[in-house]
């Protein structure tokens, strides 16, 4: 049975590790270059790694169409989220993202 990703309401208010963090940790400032970007993204992913609602955050972002094209959500960059969408999902005939792996 496929898993349907649906929007989750108010997941961010349930103890998200990013609550109170500077948003620049998760979103690149204008003109940011490597290696500063890699260091910032690593720190953001560390925050996500200890987050109790990480899965909900990622699922919520994956559900969005087209989703945000920047920022760290659920511990993944925009590029990583695009790759994950391609790997795990397909569009069904109604334009709803549906996971192609089993829910087991």
- Envelope shape: globular
Q: Report the total helices.
A: 3
Strand order, largest beta sheet = 1-3-2
Terminal residue distance: 8 Å
Classification by helices and strands: alpha+beta
Q: What is the C-alpha radius of gyration, as a whole number of Å? A: 15 Å
Give the key terms:
disordered N terminus, 104 residues, disordered C terminus
SSE topology sketch:
Elements: E1 2-4, H1 36-49, H2 54-63, H3 78-88, E2 89-91, E3 97-102
Antiparallel strand pairs: 1-3, 2-3
Task: Describe this structure as you would to a colleague.
This protein has 104 residues and is an alpha+beta fold. Helices cover 34% and strands 12% of the residues. The protein is built from 3 helices and 3 strands. A 3-stranded antiparallel β-sheet has the order 1-3-2. A hairpin with a 5-residue loop joins strand 2 (89-91) and strand 3. The longest helix has 14 residues, at 36-49.
Give a quick summary of the entry.
With 104 residues, the protein is an alpha+beta fold. The chain is built from three helices and three strands; from the N terminus they run βαααββ. A three-stranded antiparallel β-sheet has the order 1-3-2.
